[in-house]
Amino acid sequence: MTAVLQAQDLGKKYGRRWALRDCTIDVPAGHVVGLVGPNGAGKTTLLKLACGQLAPTSGRISVLGGPPGDRAHLARVGFVAQDTPTYAGLTVAEHLRLGARLNSGWDAALAEERIDRLGLDPGRRASRLSAGERAQLALTLGLAKRPELLVLDEPVAALDPLARREFLRGLMEATAEHELSVLLSSHLVSDLERTCDYLIVLVDSRVRLAGEVDELLATHHRLTGPRRDPDRLPADQYVVSARHTDRQSTFIVRAEGPILDPAWTVGRLTMEDLVLAYLEQAAPVRRRRPALAVVR
Ligand SMILES: Nc1ncnc2c1ncn2[C@@H]1O[C@H](COP(=O)(O)OP(=O)(O)OP(=O)(O)O)[C@@H](O)[C@H]1O
Q1: How many CB atoms lie within 10 A of CB 123?
Q2: pLDDT in tens, 28-38
Q3: Ligand 1 atom 13: the closest Cα is on which residue?
Q4: pTM of the model
Q5: What is the C-alpha separation between 73 and 270, in angstroms, rounded?
Q6: Half-sphere exposure for 227 (CA within 13 Å, toward CB)
Q7: Side by side, which strands form the sheet with 220-226?
Q8: In 3D, which of 107, 180, 185, 110 has the Cα closest to residue 149?
Q9: C-alpha 114 – ligand 1 centre gap (Å)
Q10: How far is the CA of 108 from the centre of ligand 1 (A)?
């Protein structure tokens, strides 16, 4: 399947500081990709590189098979920037007219139907909309462009839990209906858990984990058993995190094969467990692999 996003040793520096470095990923099309990481991890930087709003300092990036940024490419990518930008003085209807004027592939029927379904008053100015309504308007503008890839930077950060759920539900429906790929960032794993089938974890400007969620969950395990030194685990079990009490050890490991040691109770992880294990992986445990632990 065509790659929606490919990066090879991609890096971006602001002044002397790397905001993103050594980023090598290959994301196939047709996924809802969750980009997760703490504040300042480099999420916005990666999204802006993908949309051609920033130029790399090092390495290469290709989006939908070509370098991002030129006019033809911009028509294929929808970008909803952080804080769901809308024009405060324009009404909902004026936003749609502006979208139609700026985008050759504009789907007016989709935009109007969506605004109608959401119950947004076309005559209302954006400044009079709630944060959730503004986010829905920004999503509508992104979708009506009929992009092949929709990029959303923290789209639900300012919304309450109900508006958040509504927004993500709308996004999921639109994704299924229009067969588009989606790349969205969040620092809330619970949002991604309901939405994404592909995950990229960024920590300290580097990709720590990337892959299809099902595969990542199938290859990561929680092992609980009698206290053991991590060095005594088999070489093909990569230790992501380790905790010990006097008598007991709990490891989160990545292993391609089954865990056969009868001493362990083997537990499955949720996406949240998985992400937290990589986020907490501050100090090296052992056998630390290169920054990108799982790549497809
Ligand atoms: N225009 C800029 N000039 C200088 N430094 C910048 C600029 N934009 C971002 N940075 C720095 O680059 C790093 C990565 O920032 P980025 O906005 O990509 O992170 P993020 O993961 O999106 O964070 P957040 O979750 O807070 O939005 C941060 O240390 C940030 O301070």
Answers
A1: 10
A2: 998 999 999 98
A3: 19
A4: 0.88
A5: 36
A6: 6
A7: 238-244, 248-254, 220-226, 265-267
A8: 180
A9: 33
A10: 35
